[in-house]
Specification:
The chain is mainly beta. It contains no helices and 7 strands.
Amino acid sequence: MKGVNVRWKHLKKSQQNPQGGASSARPRSTRRTSSLFDPKAGKGVRVRHEVREGKKVRVSVKTGEVLGGA
């Protein structure tokens, strides 16, 4: 699909660019969020942070299981 997710930069007239105008540019990198996989739930889940046994761990919101090999 050509022309999808194209960012346009509008340029002001200047000595380097006397014409001005708009130019297409590569899209900016977008931040992507990802979920941690919870084997008990069988899918990616949201997490919350808790302190257990003196260590800060990631805990599945859905199942309450500690994630991330702690």
